[in-house]
Structures are given as C-alpha cells and as structure tokens.
C-alpha cells in the first residue's frame, strides 16, 4: 500500500497523463481547487476517505490509487480499512452527555486502519489557534477519554461546560495549561477559578474540501 506522499504523486501523475488540469479535476471531484493544490504540494494529507471520488474522476479503481498489488488484497475491507460513521458535535448542552442527541449536528464517515477503540466524536474547527497543525475548518476525530498525556491534543470543555476547544495539554502542578499551536495566542489556564473538563484525545485530523 502506498504512503500518503506516494498516493499524492500517483494521483498527480495520473492527472497529468490524462491531460487533466487541476481545475478540471476539481470540477470532476466536486472539490475545491485550493484543497487539491494543498494535496499536490503535500501541505495537507491526502483524504483517504475520498479515494472513491478521485478514482471515479480519473477512471481507475480505488485499489489502484492506494497501491494494492493485483495479487494481494483487493478491497478496502481486505486492507483492514473500516468506514466508521462518527457524530459531529456542535455546542454542548450544559450537563448533557457528550454524545446526547441534542449535541449532534451531523455525521462524518472516516476510514480507519482497523477498528478504532472507544467512543468517537468529531468537531468542526473554527479559528486558527491550532494552525498549522489543525487549520481552520478542519474536522478532528476525538476518542472519548477523561485524561490525556502532556503534549497530546485534547478537546476540552470550557466556558461553563458549553464550549469545546482544541488545545495541546500541559500539566503544571494542580493547573492545566491549554497550549495553542499558533504563537499569536496565549495559553488558557485551567484551575479552580477557571475550571474545564477534558472530553477526549484528538486521534485524527481531516481537512474540509
């Protein structure tokens, strides 16, 4: 199976061999030209969950793009890639469980190499505090767990248990520092006066197209 960079190079070379411009590929796939450019420039990971869309546009099989040998595994299922339907969480109702119906604003389907562990939910990112690691409008997949290790990125409930934010975690004594990736933002300190609650660990980032 090809690596991310190899998949990108295969798709880009296939596009060129077929005389297809990025504009034409964007039209055929229904994706934004700017997103395609980022994939081909390798500034964003290739969206494996969209492999069928690219395969149809380029008149090949998804297995061709993924680089599955003809004598080897044939399908995504045989590769151990499992589509998982994940609820997208909006503003979290005060006091309600994370995955309560009133919190769910939609669903996304993601491919995983094997069955993921634990309950999962997704958040749509707003803002640039976690760029370049997590850009604005990205979708993050979060595994529900009450604690994370230092330097891991977590979804944290703040603002009176109503708003979820994404930050890198750093424990200092009895305080928790929520660290942005973007240096123009200041850390958020969680303590008795400004409490918060870890909802889970970010395990995957997908990019809106």
Briefly, what is this?
21% of the residues lie in helices and 31% in strands. By secondary structure, it is of the alpha+beta class. It is elongated.
Description:
This protein has 209 residues and is α+β, with helices and mostly antiparallel strands. It has 2 domains: 4-66, 434 Repressor (Amino-terminal Domain); 82-206, Umud Fragment, subunit A. It is 21% helix and 31% strand. The protein has 5 helices and 9 strands. A 7-stranded antiparallel sheet has the order 3-4-9-5-6-7-8, with no helix packed on it. A hairpin with an 8-residue loop joins strand 7 (175-179) and strand 8 (188-190).
The counted number of beta strands is 9
Secondary structure: helix percent: 10-25%
Largest sheet: 7 strands, antiparallel
Question: What string gives the helices and strands in order?
Answer: HHHHHEEEEEEEEE
- Beta strand %: 25-35%
CATH homologous superfamily of the largest domain? Umud Fragment, subunit A
Q: How many helices does DSSP assign?
A: 5
The CA-CA distance between the termini, in Å, is: 24 Å
Q: Supply the helix-strand structural class.
A: alpha+beta
- CATH architecture of the largest domain, please? Ribbon
Mean pLDDT: 83
Strand order of the largest sheet: 3-4-9-5-6-7-8
GO molecular function: DNA binding
Organism: Lactobacillus helveticus CIRM-BIA 951
Domain HTH cro/C1-type: 11-65
InterPro entries: Cro/C1-type_HTH (IPR001387), Lambda_DNA-bd_dom_sf (IPR010982), LexA-like (IPR039418), LexA/Signal_pep-like_sf (IPR036286), LexA_repressor (IPR050077), Peptidase_S24_S26A/B/C (IPR015927)
